[in-house]
Design goal:
- Belongs to the MurCDEF family. MurE subfamily.
- The protein is of the alpha/beta class.
- Helix content is about 35%, strand content about 25%.
- It contains 16 helices and 24 strands.
- A six-stranded parallel β-sheet has the order 7-10-6-11-12-13, with helices on both faces. Strands 17-18-22-19-20-21 form a six-stranded mixed β-sheet, with helices on both faces.
- The structure holds ligand UAG, adenosine-5'-triphosphate, 2,6-diaminopimelic acid and magnesium ion.
Length: about 475
């Protein structure tokens, strides 16, 4: 594509050099640029893309987009005010504005995004609609599963994924929209049909600084939608957002159980492996069954139902899709092989998620509830003592251990969790090594117990320092049990 074509309509501060050149590719990382490409220099949190212009030129960049004046020769230099924002516009144009041709559904909120997106995908597929998915566990283009390194990819990668979805004739895409992505303009050029809000509780305060900032970031999604905004009004922030959305031209659809919502559930029945309820909507009442446990599954189910209802999906397909979904990896996932006691792996990594999952699991514990968990390093520190306190309140025994310590001293993280734990009468041990912590939990378990291993869910690695080691809670629990003759 001609560079002039790519830049059409953009506010450019200065162009130095030839703008009639052909651009074959675009990139924001000098380490993987192709020939005849445009390199977008992003000022980051760790380093600054402007420092890698020479590297970029050596690898094939013939144009660079910058935010500040730079001294370079032999390439076209385009200066704009904000390269992150420009990246979203350029990426969308480069790939032919793919989000316009997709039925795009965005799900935001602190907890439940991944779970809700899988439910929506299953319902849409039940209707015969080819559906892409973008989120924490993996990205899906049709039947092809691809690794995901973040919940919501950079604008460039995101637009490329949409384009790839259209190439396999996908009709819809359901994606998680993280607060980081809304703040860092990754979804700037996405044209959403439906936006879903699950809930908001403290998280990512390292990045957003205040809850108000965090809420405002999430809220941005609902100004980018055209068909419907689906909001959980049992959530206090959801209620506030719904109030603010009332005057928007995009219709609002509310869901909830406690409040007077348009989409609601009554007669909720929960078992160790499932939930069922009577769904009440303005048009019909139907019985819904899901083979996933937990009260939060009712909420995620209502969110998915409301999103599909707003798209006029037939209730038969909604029911069938939800009934056929076999759980989501690492979300209340039972390690099946255990007989005397249950071992459950869950991705709860926020105070609210941990409290919800512990409450749900406690209802089904015939004996002790043993919790193994930690908190990630280089992330929000305020949640650590709060999660310690929650674990202490609901568990009969807690093993505080490492999550992904990243570059932090893991013992320092565990100490912060312990501070909260010590506010309770909870019995606990601190075992830094996660494998050893799981060994201890398994050895402490007796008939009727439940062991909840929380925080890492589907993750198949552990990040210690800058190194990534293989580690999968589900596999590790099984390995230990086999070694010790437990199963
Ligand atoms: C806080 C945050 O989101 N950071 C993201 C951001 O990093 P950054 O802006 O600090 O980038 P940087 O590392 O300083 O580098 C600046 C620029 O120089 C470039 N560079 C760097 C080195 C080099 O040799 N050549 C080069 O060109 C980089 O590609 C980048 O464009 O841009 C980088 C490049 O796209 C991302 O990799 C990085 O995500 C990091 C890995 C991250 O951990 N992000 C997490 C916090 C995140 O985004 N999480 C959310 C929410 C999760 C949830 O709740 O579900 C998510 O959506 O995943
Ligand atoms: N609606 C909900 N409300 C509260 N907690 C929930 C809800 N849904 C799921 N959880 C808990 O949160 C954990 C993470 O769920 P899920 O992966 O669906 O959320 P997410 O919003 O995608 O998280 P992330 O921010 O990491 O992408 C689950 O393992 C469960 O413990
Ligand atoms: N999406 C979350 C995942 C946290 C998972 C936990 N295992 C950790 O590493 O902190 C984040 O990026 O903060
Ligand atoms: Mg997620």
């Amino acid at each position: 594509m001609l560079l002039t074509e790519l830049l059409k309509g953009m506010v450019i501060e200065e162009i130095v050099g030839n703008d009639k050149i052909n651009i074959d590719d675009i990139g924001y990382d000098s380490r993987n640029l192709k020939k005849n490409s445009l390199f977008l220099c992003i000022k980051g949190f760790k380093t600054d893309g402007h420092l890698y212009i020479k590297d970029a030129i050596r690898r094939g960049a013939t144009a660079v987009m910058v935010e500040r004046t730079v001294e370079v020769e032999g390439v076209t230099v385009i200066r704009v005010k904000d390269t992150r924002k420009a990246m979203a516009a350029i990426a969308s144009r480069f790939y032919g504005h793919p989000s316009r041709s997709l039925n795009l559904i965005g799900v935001t909120g602190t907890n439940g995004k991944t779970s809700t997106t899988y439910m929506i995908k299953k319902i849409l597929e039940t209707c015969g609609k080819k559906t892409g998915l973008i989120g924490t566990i993996s990205n899906w283009i049709g039947e092809e599963k691809m690794d995901a390194s973040r919940t919501t990819p950079e604008a460039l990668d995101l637009q490329r994924l949409f384009k790839n979805m259209l190439e396999v004739e996908a009709d819809s895409c359901v994606m998680e929209v993280s607060s980081h992505s809304l703040e860092l303009q990754r979804v700037e050029e996405c044209e959403f049909k439906v936006g879903v809000f699950t809930n908001l509780t403290p998280e990512h305060l390292d990045f957003h600084k205040t809850l108000e900032d965090y809420r405002n970031a999430k809220k941005k999604l609902f100004y980018k939608t055209s068909l419907c905004n689906v909001i959980n009004i049992d959530d206090l922030d959801g209620r506030k957002i719904a109030e603010e959305m009332k005057d928007l031209s995009t219709p609002l659809l509310t869901y909830g159980i406690r409040e007077q919502a348009e989409i609601t559930a009554r007669n909720i029945v929960m078992t160790m492996t499932s939930v069922s309820f009577d769904l009440i909507t303005p048009k019909y009442t139907e019985k819904i069954e899901l083979n996933i446990p937990g009260m939060f599954t009712v909420y995620n189910g209502l969110a998915a139902i409301a999103a599909c209802y707003s798209m006029n999906i037939d209730i038969k397909n909604i029911k069938k899709g939800l009934k056929n979904l076999r759980g989501v990896a690492g979300r209340l996932e039972a390690v099946e092989e255990f007989k005397d006691f249950a071992v459950i792996v869950d991705y709860a990594h926020t105070p609210d998620a941990l409290e919800n999952v512990l409450k749900s699991v406690k209802d089904f514990t015939n004996n002790k509830l043993i919790t193994v968990f930690g908190c990630g390093g280089d992330r929000d520190q305020t949640k650590r003592p709060v999660m310690g306190e929650i674990a202490g309140i609901y568990s009969d025994l807690t093993i505080i251990t490492s999550d992904n310590p990243r570059t932090e001293d893991s013992m320092k993280i565990l100490k912060m969790i312990e501070e909260g734990m010590n506010k309770t009468k909870g019995k606990y041990h601190v075992i830094e090594d996660r494998r050893e912590a799981i060994v201890f939990a398994l050895k402490s378990a007796t008939k009727g117990d439940i062991i909840l291993i929380a925080g890492k869910g589907h993750e198949t690695y552990q990040i210690i320092g800058d190194s990534v080691f293989e580690f999968d809670d589900r596999k590790v629990a099984l390995e230990i049990a086999k070694e010790d003759g437990i199963i």
